[in-house]
């Protein structure tokens, strides 16, 4: 409170400046647009340095978001946010005591800060209603447009060169436009990002898009986010089994070259087919997990309690199609939840995801009750679920800024009392 002329007036509470919010939102669009072209650039030049662009963008986003948070007089804090900050301290301490590899230590430390700051920023950004609608609309337009251009060039190269090409498409980037257009019932526009994903041949992202479609279609039959996700997961599982069975009726050799390559990748994951090979079919991810688990369980028993800390690594002998045995040291696996077990131990890894999901599910219920099923807040929440699903086959939890901003925006939609910053 302030006193002006003997009259008590409410004190002005500083929020995150609009400039900071707009910068971060614009940075996410730039990050996704550049990301759409990186696969193509690497295809044209395997030695291209563009693959490291995200390190620069992510660092800038985290710094700007942190400054924005410091600008606020009061920030909202939740149990999940408190835990996200606490595990950074734990991972740092355990890593130092364990003598972690310095370059991996820095990478793990940055990822921990990256998660906490971007989620916290989204949670406190006060971005709602029309302002959020404008950003999601612009993001969808720019990102879908960028992928259309990149895919056109990609398939043009395919026609000229021939052979089997593969262009991975990031799930969170196109899942948000897909959800936006689908919820708003702009079906032709929703079909475009879905088609781009399927045409890219990326199986995990294709499953995420299909999962989101089932999630939206089955929402009326399941109350609450957890039940809706469980029901959608079961339906998707049944659809996958039917799809694998149907592949037995198709001879990939008779298909056009591009479609042949995509179907061939699915055949490697088909337990009903003769070509089934989960190691090769998962691009070495199953073997990668085996190598990492062997490293983890081979250590002292108390690592299950506190983890390996920042700087941990393991020898990766996974076989990758077209590359062979990589035989190098790595510091993460392409199954995001497991990385939290390795870094922080079982109790905190479980607590991390239980608290995160609990806050997201509670916010989702509030959104449905107070803003409706077609609101922009619900769109953001569903897109956040899609991004979480994408992380089950990648390292997205430690590297995708869109994921944590979407989660922060979704959970922050539910009003709560602000807590003074300590």
Describe the structure in your own words.
This protein is mainly alpha-helical and 422 residues long. The protein has one domain (13-420). It contains 17 helices and eight strands. It has helices at residues 18-44, 53-71, 79-98, 102-124, 129-161, 171-183, 187-200, 203-217, 225-247, 257-267, 278-281, 285-297, 303-306, 336-344, 346-370, 376-390, 401-411, and strands spanning 2-4, 7-9, 74-75, 314-316, 319-320, 324-325, 328-330, 419-420. The strands form four sheets. Strands 1-2 form a two-stranded antiparallel ribbon. It has a two-stranded antiparallel ribbon with strand order 3-8. A two-stranded antiparallel sheet has the order 4-7. A hairpin with a 3-residue loop joins strand 5 (319-320) and strand 6. The protein starts with a strand and ends with a strand. 40% of the residues are buried. The model is unreliable at 1-12 and 417-422 (pLDDT under 50).
């Amino acid at each position: 409170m302030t006193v002006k002329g003997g009259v008590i007036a409410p004190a002005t509470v500083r929020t995150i400046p609009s400039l900071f919010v707009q910068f971060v939102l614009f940075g996410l669009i730039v990050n996704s647009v550049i990301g759409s072209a990186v696969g193509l650039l690497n295809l044209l030049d395997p030695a291209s340095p563009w693959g490291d662009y995200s390190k620069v963008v992510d660092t800038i986003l985290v710094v700007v978001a942190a400054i924005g948070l410091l600008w606020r007089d009061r920030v909202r804090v939740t149990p999940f946010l408190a835990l996200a900050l606490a595990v950074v301290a734990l991972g740092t301490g355990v890593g130092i005591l364990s003598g972690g590899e310095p370059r991996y230590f820095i990478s793990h430390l940055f990822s921990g800060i990256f998660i906490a700051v971007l989620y916290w920023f989204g949670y406190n950004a006060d971005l709602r209603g029309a302002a959020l609608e404008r950003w999601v609309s612009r993001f969808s337009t720019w990102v879908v447009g960028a992928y259309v251009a990149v895919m056109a060039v990609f398939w043009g190269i395919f026609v000229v060169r021939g052979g089997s090409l593969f262009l991975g498409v990031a799930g969170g980037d196109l899942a948000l436009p897909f959800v936006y257009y689908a919820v708003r019932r702009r079906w032709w526009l929703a079909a475009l990002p879905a088609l781009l994903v399927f045409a890219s041949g990326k199986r995990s992202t294709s499953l995420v898009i299909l999962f989101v479609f089932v999630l939206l279609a089955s929402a009326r039959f399941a109350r609450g986010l957890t039940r809706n996700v469980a029901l959608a997961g079961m339906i998707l599982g049944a659809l996958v089994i039917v799809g694998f069975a149907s592949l037995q009726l198709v001879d990939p050799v008779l298909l056009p070259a591009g479609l042949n390559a995509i179907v061939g990748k699915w055949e490697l994951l088909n337990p009903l087919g003769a070509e089934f090979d989960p190691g090769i079919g998962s691009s070495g991810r199953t073997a990668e997990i085996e190598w990492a688990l062997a490293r983890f369980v081979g250590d002292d028993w108390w690592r299950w309690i506190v983890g390996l800390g920042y700087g941990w690594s393991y020898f990766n002998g996974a076989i990758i199609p077209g590359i062979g045995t990589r035989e190098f040291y790595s510091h993460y696996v392409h199954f995001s939840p497991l990385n939290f077990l390795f870094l922080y131990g079982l109790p905190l890894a479980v607590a991390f995801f239980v608290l995160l999901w609990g806050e997201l599910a509670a916010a989702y219920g509030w959104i449905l009750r107070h803003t409706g099923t077609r609101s922009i807040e619900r769109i953001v929440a569903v897109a956040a679920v899609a991004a979480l699903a994408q992380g089950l086959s990648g390292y997205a939890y430690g590297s995708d800024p869109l994921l944590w901003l979407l989660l922060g925006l979704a959970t922050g939609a539910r009003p709560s009392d602000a807590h003074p910053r300590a």
